């Protein structure tokens, strides 16, 4: 009888080890189809046509090189990275929004950021000849009264509370 009970216990433990975790397939709704123009700008901070241009520009670098049926499309990768950039939130929040795992989100942000950085010199530059520099200085002065400005970078300002004493 004792041998029989040991045999049953062994089989139960052995069966648990061989059980595979079921794969989870998340709904990956395409944001182009799910949101109107106003909602896309609110969520991703760029208009639809700019995002479409980004997808076309980065498609060669981001398109999946696998024949797997659940590969993440280049358009969804661009949307995922833009959502992360737009919210400044943790990766988990952006990945939950689009139905992507946290690990995939991390890889996507790295890939999209690298692809954008490779192309930065085509779109981000400062004029080097003196005539163009002088024209920029005049334009910025006329725009906001800022003297000697050659360019600017968009960003988000965050209020930081100063320490009370010697914190």
Radius of gyration: 26 Å
- Percent strand equals under 5%
Low-confidence stretches: none
Beta strands, count: 0
Which whole number gives the mean pLDDT? 81
What does the largest sheet look like?
none
Helix count, DSSP H or I runs of 4 or more residues:
9
Shape: elongated
Distance between the termini: 69 Å
Multimeric state of these chains? single chain
User: What percent of residues adopt helix (DSSP H or I)?
Assistant: 55-70%
User: What pattern of helices and strands is seen along the backbone?
Assistant: HHHHHHHHH
Structural class: mainly alpha
How would you explain this protein's 3D organization?
- There is one protein chain.
- This protein is mainly alpha-helical and 167 residues long.
- It is built from nine helices and no strands.
- It has helices spanning 2-18, 31-34, 37-44, 48-62, 74-87, 91-98, 102-118, 120-123, 130-144.
- The longest helix has 17 residues, at 2-18.
- It starts with a helix and ends in a 23-residue tail after the last helix.
Keywords summarizing the entry:
167 residues, mainly alpha
Secondary structure: elements and pairs:
Blueprint: H1 2-18, H2 31-34, H3 37-44, H4 48-62, H5 74-87, H6 91-98, H7 102-118, H8 120-123, H9 130-144
Helix pairs in contact: 4-5, 5-6, 5-7, 6-7
